[in-house]
Amino acid sequence: MASSFWKGVVGVGLFALAHAAFSAAQHRSYMRLTEKENETLPFDIVLQTLLSFVMTCYGIVHIAGEFKDMDASSELKNKTFDTLRNHPSFYLFNHRGRVLFRSPEEELSAQNQQALPNPIRLRKLEHLH
Question: Distance of CA 49 to CAs 23, 37, 62, Å?
Answer without folding.
Answer: 10, 21, 20
